[in-house]
Amino acid sequence: MVFSVLWTRSFLLTCELAVSAVAIALLIGVPVGWAAWLNAIKRLSGSGRSYRMGASGIVTSLFFGVAVASLTMPLVLHAAAWESAAGKFGWWTLTQTGSRRFGQFSGLIACSIVHGIHGSAAVALATWIGLRRIPGVLLESSRLDTGPLKRAFRFLLPMAAPWIATAALGVAMLAATEMTVADLYGFRTLADEFYLFHAAEPSAMAVMMVCFIPTLLAIFGGWMFRIASRRSGRPVHPHRDDSTSQNFASPTAPGTILTRLLSLAILVAFMLVVLVIPVGSLIVKAGHDVTVVADQRQVAWSLSSCVQRLASAPETFRREYVQTAMIAGLSATVSTIIGGIAALGTAARPTRRRWMDAISLAAFAIPGPVIGLGVIGVFQWPMTGFGMLYRQTLVPTLIALCFKSVPVAYFIIRVALAGRSTAIRSQADLDAGPTGRVFRIWIPMYAPVLAAAWITSAVVASGDVPVLLPVVPPGVTTVTTRLFGLLHSGARYQEAALAFWYVAATTTLVITATWIARRRRTGGSDVIG
């Protein structure tokens, strides 16, 4: 009876967190996706080459980089940034105004904010994709019937609804499977309940309970993705230029300037919320000093202390940074190779591709604690060498991390392959053998995409705390696992300095990879769309 009551409570808490996170993600992501679509305007010059228009293009380009960086950033880093701002020892909490709300950033509120802001990037990108796939003829007819804002709510967003629903289901699935944030704020979801009380002796009932919601969401998400991708009758890929079928009104037309300014303001606000404020909070927290004088707490901020602590962090946490880079690099290399082989092997075979999509989605939906314990169970088998591999090598760690990083690399490469016609693949088959096609044709052709897949899977692998905690060998500590342990007592300057350089490095890498991939996609002209 007690067992059923505990699982019922955790089940309801998981549903509550998923609904709250989806609501915040939709509230932020849908307007941002609409604003990004509205600003993604390309004009053709006399030479026929595309180019961006002024501030609109710059802001939109930054949006894509920031959105992808926020989406791939590990949730524990999002939690560290917001804990530095509004947590127990956050800079805002230590102000006179913020101290009145001490302790409110916890439980469901904190988990929903972290998951919702993280998921808003996925919703924004999905909204943009859905709007970009609306045929230009329908856009022209709708423009004649109503104004831009009313048209967005009555026509555009309903047309993009399957894409938005797919992203929303993804946000809910992550909230149901990721226990890092829930554990930090004491919100006992199914994944956290399994990690805390059933990891030592997992039962079939416990595994079934923790996998039930993610499996259900993955099934609905895959079904919704098929509906979304088939609505316009075209496969999803980044190489097609749809701008010629989505001609916008003149930027100087009545009402257009006001709408464009509104969309720019929305994009700027989004970048402030998901990047500038969190990173700024880490910087501010690194320079915070709290002292007690005559039973009175005094809070001061020092620029010299901030610079000194940030500068010394790479040396102080050198072991964590080196081990994180090693694990992330190895995992990304393995994941990119496996994902590339899977994507290339199924590119011309729709039935195999659908099966591979389903397998990848199923692997990604498995909760991290279940993956880690499953890998540990395999290496506990009485087979020669398994014990040594488990205790002294990174093999179990890499296998466990591949459950998340391989699907990420696979889908990135799969989308890129969908952008090449069958004629190119047929010509490649005639010009070279299997090995020659890979090294002489496919790798040079898709080098930017492979780089993007490698970087993205490296970031995902390095931040997969639920998987890393049970399988990482003794003596090995990554940035995210160390940060996860430190954040349980609140975010102080040590945690802020540790997280800052990791956030800065991953954000720079992801934005650079996104920019390179988008330039290569358009043959050297920097274009959004």
TrEMBL record:
The keyword Nucleus does not apply. GO terms for cellular component: plasma membrane. It comes from the Bacteria. Gene3D superfamilies: MetI-like. Keywords: Cell inner membrane, Cell membrane, Membrane, Transmembrane, Transmembrane helix, Transport. It is a multi-pass membrane protein. This is Spermidine/putrescine ABC transporter membrane protein. It comes from Crateriforma conspicua.
